[in-house]
Specification:
The protein has 3 helices and 7 strands, in the order βααββββββα. By secondary structure, it is an alpha+beta fold. Strands 1-7-6-5-4-3-2 form a 7-stranded antiparallel β-sheet. A hairpin with an 8-residue loop joins strand 2 and strand 3. The longest helix is centred in the last third of the chain and has 24 residues. It is globular and about 50 Å long.
Length: 162
């Protein structure tokens, strides 16, 4: 199996703890409210939301590029603001990917904001050896859209995830 690594960093003007809470520990309650145009709902299939071992189905609204995806939280470290998860099912994997393993770190930027560093390992299905630049670009834009839309909402609603 071929594995391809992708890393990205983005700076936002929201504290690391608020971003971590919105994306990880309370994502199933918060994200559908914050970004309903991106996330319709998050169903907890196994475990409890926002904890290691939790299996979730993220449902996307009508008109989105795909209907849903399933992931499993492999590590939720609320003290160090690190999450690792594996996307293991859904049309978002496409025909090439077997799974997507992701790590996200929410770091203090020193100015009241947050630097989000994420690293993805794309595990490709047998017979596939690369991902096109277009596919990487789409994945980057999708991730950035999640973060920037959440940032805007949290700035406009300082009591959310406080």
């Amino acid at each position: 199996m071929t594995t391809i690594e992708f890393s990205k960093e983005i700076k936002v003007q929201v504290t690391p703890k608020r971003m971590f809470k919105a994306f990880v520990t309370d994502a199933h309650n918060i994200l559908p409210k914050i970004i309903p145009h991106i996330v319709k709902s998050i169903d907890i299939l196994e475990g409890e939301g926002g904890v290691t071992g939790c299996v979730r189905q993220i449902n996307f609204p009508h008109g989105a590029p795909f209907s849903h995806m399933k992931d499993k939280l492999e590590l939720v470290d609320a003290e160090n603001l690190v999450v690792k998860f594996v996307l293991f099912e859904g049309p978002g994997l496409g025909e090439k990917m077997e799974s997507l393993h992701s790590e996200q770190r929410f770091l203090d930027s020193g100015d009241g904001g947050c630097i989000i560093k994420w690293k993805n390992h794309h595990h490709l299905k047998a017979g596939h050896t690369h991902i096109s630049e277009e596919e990487f670009k789409a994945a980057r834009e999708h991730g950035i859209t999640f973060f920037t839309a959440t940032e805007a909402y949290l700035i406009a609603h300082p009591d959310v995830c406080a």
